[in-house]
Amino acid sequence: MHDLSVRSPVIAAFGHPANLETFTLRLPPALAAAQPDAVRVRVAIPVQMLPSSQPVPVRFWLQDSTSDSLTDAMVAALSSHTEQAPAIVVVTDPLPVSWYMDSHQGERALEHFALELLLPKIQQRFGVSLGGQGSSIEGIHLSAYGALYLGLKYPHLFGRITAIQPVMMAAGAEVPMERITPWVWMRRNQQQLQHSCITLVISQRNNAFNQAITACHQDLQRAQIPHHFVQFTTERPAEPTVSTSHLLLDSAI
Questions:
Q1: 204 Cβ contact partners less than 8 Å away, ≥ 6 residues apart
Q2: Could you tell me which residues come within 8 angstroms of residue 116 by beta carbon, excluding any fewer than 6 positions away?
Q3: What is the mean pLDDT of the chain?
Q4: Mean pLDDT of the 173-184 span
């Protein structure tokens, strides 16, 4: 199911050196239809890990097909620039459709890719346990929707969710609430999500999806689910990018 991994030399990132390990997950035919048959995964492993008696934080960054790909240095930077540094950071290469949820027809089983291939591989290879606020799922644009969807649906796996300018639609006459899956799982898992750390990021200059993101924020408020709602002001970048978002979030939260 996967190729042998390759580990690169140490990359210095914000004073916390990390090794970068790269491997390829080969998708079985049931998952590979209408999408690549293999996905590259990069994992930043801090050189100085926490004591073995403590759980190792894990950050899953889902790349977006419409944004620039993270460089190796950015992947290593995500490992050290976090509230729970040092952390293992898992970055998947962008998929053609970055929603990270299964299509109704089943030809793009991206949720199954994450749950049945990616997560077990990381748990087996690095001996980590998922769950609680030590494991986070994050994304930008299309993949931010995926991070929100997976995080709200599986709060026992991802205790932290960060969705940066997610591409999502507000519910309305033409889009029934039941079809907007993040809202569905928000209601179903309301009790479990009380213990999650959720961050929604909105850009004031990019308002194409701001109505839906604001509606998601308001629904979280009504459900009394703790979360952060971060709005980038005009003094900050007009459009949050993967190279700046983790730096800005640290100062905003």
A1: 210, 231, 232, 233, 234
A2: none
A3: 77
A4: 60
Tell me the percentage of the chain whose pLDDT exceeds 70. Answer: 67
CA 156 to chain centre: 15
Q: Edge to edge, what strands does the sheet with 88-92 contain?
A: 6-7, 18-26, 38-46, 88-92, 58-62, 135-140, 160-164, 197-203, 227-232
CA atoms in the 13 A half-sphere facing the CB of 179 = 11
Over residues 185-194, mean pLDDT: 92
Whole-number Å distance between alpha carbons of 12 and 4: 24
Handedness of CA 159, 149, 26, 70 (dihedral sign): negative
Residue 135's Cβ-side half-sphere holds a number of Cα atoms within 13 Å equal to 18
Which positions ≥6 away from 94 have C-beta within 8 Å? 63, 64, 65, 67, 69, 143
Nearest 5°: the CA angle 153, 177, 209 is 85
Say what the pTM is. 0.84
How far is it, in rounded angstroms, from Cα 65 to Cα 60? 16
